[in-house]
Prior knowledge:
Number of domains: 2
Order of helices and strands: EEEEEEEEEEEEEEEE
CATH class of the largest domain: Mainly Beta
Number of helices: 0
Distance between the termini: 25 Å
Amino acid sequence: MWRDDFDGTSGTSPSGADWILRTGTQYPGGAAKWGTGEVETMSASTANVSLDGTGKLAIKAVRDGAGNWTSGRVETQRTDFAPQPGERLRFTARLKQPDVPNAMGYWPGFRATGAAYRGDYTNWPAVGETDIMTDVNGRSQLSNTLHCGTAPDGACNEYGGRTSGLATCDGCQTGFHEYTQIIDRTRSDEEIRFYLDGVQTWVVR
């Protein structure tokens, strides 16, 4: 088991032993604008990514006086999270989505990407990616998505991926909710299950 409760002094960066703060507008050699047309520049500034002093990590989008946006993108240092045959692996995070009067353009996400992506950045979607939580434009909704195979089209219907569609996520902008993925290899028909506050929202077999 591995976890981070984000204990620490308010206004400081998360542990560099556990987390990588990505910066700029793309991975080295990867697709521009992070592959999704994002307008912000990712920053390691504590104005964008910092502990809040009460066991939470705050990731904030900030717009300067010239209209330029910065935000934060964090990844675990570890890349060895993988279930063996006969095992289950669970990813869980308690998240509060953006709660602003006009959330148009916000695209928070919690995802897991295949370890082989680290350092290559040209092997997506074959490397695999699961989007455990995606929300767009401040809606009280979420979606789960599996990316895989080849693009365009392929087994996962890229570039959009195989997706749950939008599910209701009442209160996700005003409070913390638990988003979970379980990769279950204990079954002959292995599956990936997605949950919101312990209630299953989607399954892929």
